[in-house]
Amino acid sequence: MNEALRQSAAHVFVDNVFSPSLTTDDQHHLSRVLRLRDGESVTCSDGKGSWVQCEWRNDSIAVIGESVTEAPRNTPLTVVIAPVKGDKTDLVIEKLVEIGIDHIVILAPLDYSVVRWAHDKIPQVMARYQRIAKAAAMQSRRVFLPTVSGPTPLGDVLGQSVGFAEPGGAAHPRDVTTLVIGPEGGFSPAELALASVTVSLGEGILRAETAAIVGAALMVAH
């Protein structure tokens, strides 16, 4: 990571790095929550790889550096997750972003899913997940804003480089670019039959939320 990004007091996403402006929420967060002082460094990214170093002045930001554009990962990494009970999915999304996953896909209910949303609740839930992903990307100083999409049917995520996390799986997470994590009850036999490859995350049987985080870390490490 670039030293200016690492050392910045805050990192935000803006529409234009050449003329960055803060949203009301970001301005409040930097001034009232983080309580930045004049002269502290703030980095601004467009979420597409470009970023610039700024300085906090009079409750706003001023550009002090040249814009930088970074190349995306050659092969984006995706984790597909079935939502789990309570606020555990919030934690999973936060950690996947911090670890470095590029795309997070929320699955539509599977055969053994516990979580099943009413249709009218879906936009609200997905908006919350996207806010969590953005906040985690700001905290971890990412210059590419990860996507959070769904709910998506399992059949829509199948492919050659897609692996289903399953105890006793034949493949290692480094062998896939998309990792599918089942619900608390696991995949049904019919769902497992759709997998082109199953992926092992170790000797133990992991909770769904733990499996997502472990799998993501192993994918990024390789």
UniProtKB/TrEMBL annotation:
Keywords carried by this UniProt record: Cytoplasm, Methyltransferase, rRNA processing, S-adenosyl-L-methionine, Transferase
Major location (coarse): cytoplasm
A Pfam family hit: PUA_4
Biological process according to GO: rRNA base methylation
Gene Ontology MF term list: rRNA (uridine-N3-)-methyltransferase activity
Cellular localisation: Cytoplasm
Cytoplasm in keyword set: yes
EC number: 2.1.1.193
Domain Ribosomal RNA small subunit methyltransferase E PUA-like: 22-55
InterPro entries membership: Alpha/beta_knot_MTases, PUA-like_sf, RsmE, RsmE_MTase_dom, RsmE_PUA-like, tRNA_m1G_MTases_N
SUPFAM superfamilies associated with the record: alpha/beta knot, PUA domain-like
Keyword field contains Methyltransferase: yes
Gene Ontology CC: cytoplasm
Catalytic activity: uridine(1498) in 16S rRNA + S-adenosyl-L-methionine = N(3)-methyluridine(1498) in 16S rRNA + S-adenosyl-L-homocysteine + H(+)
Domain Ribosomal RNA small subunit methyltransferase E methyltransferase: 74-219
Family: Belongs to the RNA methyltransferase RsmE family.
Function: Specifically methylates the N3 position of the uracil ring of uridine 1498 (m3U1498) in 16S rRNA. Acts on the fully assembled 30S ribosomal subunit.
Protein name per UniProt: 16S rRNA (uracil(1498)-N(3))-methyltransferase
Organism lineage string: unclassified sequences, metagenomes, ecological metagenomes
